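4.2 Preliminary Data

To establish feasibility before requesting continued support, the project team ran the inverse folding procedure on a target of 571 residues. The structure was first converted into the token representation described in Section 3, and no sequence information of any kind was made available to the design step. The complete token record follows.
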């Protein structure tokens, strides 16, 4: 037994040596691997290390766990932990249920208006992270259109847990819908037909066939929404009122109280919760979600047309879709009224303010996002190529660490970057570079995931043939691999631009007097109650994003890629 184990270890060692020798013969590949590992260490691991280190140091610079003690003994800190978990659980359940109903309607129900589903799926992506909060305040605030003007309620309070559950559920259920619709659409209909042929009713077939097959994906969707909820910063600070969450408490501790140790301790707690959920979601449920699904069946599914099933589901989905579209439509509407709830006369004063005072924030945001997007696209393709096509020491580290950006809450990244890059040898605080790097770190995982999925479906023999003919890794990647995954590359590029334009939680710690971003300006306007100006900024931001998407799709067409092949909502 010991001999076999020794031989296995010896064989593994020989394999590593053999792989290293092969890589060392290709200097460009070796340099690329070293650069990727170094970048991941510098911009992901090092900031997290500094957050952990800061959480264990007191104000005098000595080792201490007082930050963690305070986190669990301070009433406000402990309440923020409990609030975060309660909110994420409620939102996870509600958003997953709504997402499942939408996904089931898209995959199974014979109905009109399914194109609305794709529209509501992309709206949260292209709008500021607290857009729904602004609209909910317009509708249900103290001077809301429904609560005050229609119902005559003068003391109605939408702020707090109720408002947050409403806002986050509407904002995050499209994520659950996208994930679940992909799974439900690929379930082989012959399995369900077999159940019905054996006498099973629609309900029995759903309960004993469809739901069990989709259950791992349902749990996966819940975990994804849970992660998004605990990391959310924009909505809690806009409509949370006194219901503080960890993301907001971290910000208040760091910026308001100048207590970096306390903020770092809370950041580590938030990170731990997020990482646990991410690991469970990525390495358990993400894989199990497709165990019983073998791909798109050649047989067409017969859509359900019975009125007692079709009508309730159709009415629910269409009504919910129209409500969400109406909420987003309130943003441009609120930008052209004098003072919402008091004076509804039309005005362009808010836009005059935006293009005078806020002009620099608009330019900074657009320029930084435009710089980050192509870099993110290229980095995503390179990392995906290394993960899927190459074997090297540190590949597992690259695979796991490159995807951490999805799991790490933005507030944790922001705190980490301040601590890591505020002193020599690497000083980036207050520069445009740190904002661009934050954009890349936050959006590159989606590009990597998309490219990995695409590469896994391409036969590597084409690339191997080029290598056998003497082409190095750079030549193979640029002339063969990249053209084959150009759809993933262009999709990652567009996604990165959108994500950068709407970033908030990480960059709120990184802005300086020299540079500002639109989302930060919008948040400032919301905090002082200037919702008209906030709506105008939001409308301009959405217009820029839409214009950029239109231009990019035109450019994409020049590369022979259809815009239908690019999934902005993937990941």
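Position-by-position output of the design step:
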């Amino acid at each position: 037994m010991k001999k076999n184990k020794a031989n296995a270890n010896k064989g593994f060692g020989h394999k590593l040596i053999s792989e290293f020798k092969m890589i060392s013969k290709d200097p460009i590949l070796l340099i690329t691997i070293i650069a990727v590992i170094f970048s991941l260490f510098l911009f992901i691991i090092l900031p997290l290390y500094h957050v952990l280190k800061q959480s264990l140091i007191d104000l005098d610079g000595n080792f201490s766990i007082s930050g963690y003690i305070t986190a669990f003994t301070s009433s406000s800190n402990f309440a923020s932990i409990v609030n975060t978990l309660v909110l994420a659980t409620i939102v996870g359940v509600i958003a997953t249920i709504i997402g499942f109903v939408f996904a089931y309607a898209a995959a199974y129900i014979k109905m009109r208006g399914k194109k609305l589903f794709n529209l509501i799926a992309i709206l949260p992506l292209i709008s500021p992270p607290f857009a729904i909060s602004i609209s909910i305040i317009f509708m249900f605030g103290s001077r809301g259109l429904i609560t005050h003007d229609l119902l005559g309620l003068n003391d109605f309070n939408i702020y707090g847990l109720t408002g947050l559950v409403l806002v986050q559920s509407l904002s995050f259920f499209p994520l659950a819908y996208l994930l679940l619709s992909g799974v439900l659409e690929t379930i082989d209909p012959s399995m369900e037909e077999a159940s019905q042929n054996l006498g099973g009713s629609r309900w029995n077939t759903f309960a004993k066939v469809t739901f069990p097959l989709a259950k791992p994906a349902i749990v996966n969707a819940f975990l994804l929404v849970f992660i998004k909820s605990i990391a959310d910063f924009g909505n809690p600070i806009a409509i949370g009122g006194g219901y503080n969450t960890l993301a907001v408490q971290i910000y208040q501790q760091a910026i308001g109280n100048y207590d970096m140790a306390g903020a770092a301790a809370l950041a580590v707690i938030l990170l731990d919760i997020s990482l646990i959920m991410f690991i469970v979601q990525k390495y358990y449920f993400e894989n199990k979600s497709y165990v019983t699904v073998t791909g798109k069946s050649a047989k067409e599914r017969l859509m359900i047309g019975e009125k007692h099933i079709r009508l309730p589901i159709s009415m629910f989905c269409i009504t919910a879709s129209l409500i969400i579209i109406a909420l987003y439509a309130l943003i441009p509407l609120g930008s052209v009224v004098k003072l919402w709830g008091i004076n509804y006369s039309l005005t362009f004063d808010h836009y005059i303010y935006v293009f005078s005072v806020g002009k620099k924030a608009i330019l900074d945001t657009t320029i930084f996002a435009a710089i980050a997007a192509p870099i993110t696209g290229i980095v995503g393709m390179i990392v995906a190529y290394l993960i899927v096509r190459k074997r090297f020491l540190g590949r597992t580290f690259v695979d796991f660490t490159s995807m951490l950006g999805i799991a790490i809450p933005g507030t944790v990244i922001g705190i980490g970057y301040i601590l890591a890059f505020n002193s020599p040898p690497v000083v980036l605080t207050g520069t445009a570079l740190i904002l661009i790097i934050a954009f890349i770190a936050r959006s590159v995982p989606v590009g990597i995931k998309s490219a990995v999925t695409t590469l896994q479906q391409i036969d590597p023999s084409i690339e191997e043939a080029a290598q056998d003919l003497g082409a190095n890794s750079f030549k193979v990647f640029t002339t063969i691999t990249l053209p084959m995954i150009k759809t993933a590359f262009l999709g990652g590029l567009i996604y990165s631009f959108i994500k950068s334009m709407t970033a908030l939680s990480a960059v709120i710690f990184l802005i300086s007097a020299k540079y500002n971003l639109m989302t930060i300006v919008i948040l400032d306007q919301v905090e002082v109650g200037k919702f008209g100006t906030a709506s105008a900024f939001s409308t301009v931001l959405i217009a820029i994003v839409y214009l950029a998407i239109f231009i990019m799709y035109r450019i994409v067409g020049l590369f022979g890629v259809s815009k239908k092949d690019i999934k902005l909502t993937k990941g």
